[in-house]
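Re: weekly structure request thread

Next one in the queue (420 aa):
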Amino acid sequence: MNRALRCVVYSLLLMVVGMGSLALISGCSSGTTSTSSGGAGGTGGTGSTWTGGGDGIWRRNAVYAEASGFDPCNAHPQQQGQYHYHDNPVCLRYQEGDNITGANVGTLTATYTETTGTPVHSPLLGFAYDGNPVYGPYGYGTATNSGSAVRRMVSSYALRTDNTTTRTSLPGWAAVAQGFSTTMATYALTSTQYGPPVSTTYPQGRYIEDYQYTAGSGDLDQYNGRYCVTPEFPSGTYAYFITIDSTGKPAFPYYIGLQYYGTVGGSSVTSISESTTSYFANHAMVGSSSSVPEVNKWYTANSAVYAQYQNSAGTKSTTWTGQTSAVYADIQAIAYSASYVYVTMSGLASHIMGPFSGNPNLPLNQNLIVKLPLTESSTAATTHSQTTGGANGVWVNGVAMFNMEDFFSWSYASQADVGN
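Done, posted below.
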């Protein structure tokens, strides 16, 4: 059954049982990748086109649409079983001691809250495919002063104030990312490119283009990062940050914008085709110590732990439908060459995964090798490639980073959101 038909079937099933439309969407996001944009009339940051459904101009916000199907860790799997986070990875942050408190951890009623008091600098939690690190929500108050007080990093995005009743223009950042414009000015659309009027059915926040970027309004730029010093990079690096609001709720664009800051050099690969030095394998360090964060910051503490899925009854198991044998969680091997680090992983977390309300998909072993640049791309790219609805990097536990898109967008012809 193809993806579009499968989504329709799930929608009908959930309507029959009265669960509502939002519960199903987590089972319908695409596992394919798209390197750029291009709505109707757009050329895209790197010249390729939108590969989701609809017109690709008003793109549905995955966090808005899919959150009802997230597990307590803010994650879920797509059709091919790739488990991933779209926003604040609370369970990973809890494991890494990132200013977060957990209650009833590993159960159906698990909750996570930001700690009160003075925070410490967030740990390095992942790497985007441009090689730049991704940190938790807390950084130095003064970007280049490690002696300054640590505080929550504030996003420079907020819901728009100019399109509160209609959707007739794109905010500048989205117009640039989609290839409609080369400036950050608001971009007027033609009538056949309009989105649905703002309403209770189509509220602000449903689409990522409902957000406006205002330079300097927060700590971070349009890519959701900044140049700064960090504990791992005392001489400075460009870094992305997870963004949350003052109550701890995810704040748009969550960890990365619609474009990368640096030049993309990372990807998943099927094999390693160059000579490398092994650093970690078979649940143990096998190489000499490394001072390079791209090598030594992967979460390997639970590499000998089997991944576990928790169903809606709270029963946990190391095997489940589609995963008929136990598989090790988190990072399984690390090797590096002069230019790249290669990380082997199952794509399954050592924290308890599931359940996923309304999502028929279950997490499966991805048996991945991810190739990342050995040095961060602190210099801005000449042409900023667009992030995608698929993986844009990898968290230090081997779970995929997905951006804010879910491969659905408004179709003017259909007058509805359409996915593929």
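The chain has a mean pLDDT of 89. Helices lie at 3-17, 62-66, 90-95, 172-178, 293-296.
Next request, please.
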